[in-house]
Write a structure and sequence with these properties.
Elements: E1 3-8, H1 13-24, E2 30-36, H2 43-49, E3 54-56, H3 59-62, H4 65-74, E4 77-82, H5 91-96, E5 101-105, H6 119-128, E6 133-140, E7 150-157, H7 164-189
Parallel strand pairs: 1-2, 1-4, 2-3, 4-5
Antiparallel strand pairs: 5-6, 6-7
Helix pairs in contact: 1-7, 6-7
Length: 190
């Protein structure tokens, strides 16, 4: 069974969704570990409730190959999923997990990507630009923020009356529906 690590920085709704998916489909893979860089993040409670170890690794330690690589090896991690992880991944880790590390971004990249464009900032920009559609992009992680090869995109309509909060709800619905399935399909191809 292929083992996954999820890297998260926030409340962990995507992490919880992915864990639930693989716990319901154990033949497709297993979330063996959650890594979080923020002590106060909600993902710890979600992971604990679902019986998945969640380890706090501050930024300086994520950037240390002698710390993060042995941790991933200990949990036999073959694939990494970034789910609301707000730090840049160090080059050594990208190389160690080349084409085995993905991220989900809450827009149709290349629009509204790059440093500082995450969560509500993206949705506010989409509404301010009066976009007619938005969506999610699942992509491989590369050395340049949000510029890795696109694996999957799905769109949703944005109405002129939609607020950033409504756009956020639409994007979360797409993430919930599609993100675990894309992870599963990539694991099958390993």
């Amino acid at each position: 069974m292929k083992k996954i690590a999820i890297f998260a920085s926030g409340n962990g709704s995507n992490a919880e969704n992915i864990i639930n998916y693989f716990q319901s489909h154990p033949d497709e893979g297993e979330v063996a570990l959650v890594v979080c860089n923020r002590k106060e993040a909600g993902v710890y409670e979600r992971a604990a409730r679902l019986g998945v170890p969640c380890v706090h690794i501050p930024k300086r330690e994520i950037n240390e190959a002698t710390i993060i690589l042995p941790l991933l090896k200990k949990y036999e991690v073959e694939f990494i999923v970034l789910a609301g992880f707000l730090l840049m991944i160090p080059d050594f880790l990208i190389q160690a997990y080349k084409r085995r590390m993905i991220n989900v971004h809450p827009s149709l990249l290349p629009k509204y990507g790059g440093k500082g464009m995450h969560g509500h900032y993206v949705h506010e920009a989409v509404v301010a630009a009066k976009e007619k559609e938005s969506g999610i992009t699942i992509h491989y992680v590369s050395e340049v923020c949000d510029e890795g090869e696109v694996i999957f995109q799905v769109k949703t309509d944005i109405l002129p009356t939609d607020t950033p909060k409504i756009v956020e709800e639409k994007i979360h619905a797409l993430e919930k529906e599609y993100f675990p399935k894309v992870v599963s399909s990539l694991l099958k191809a390993l």
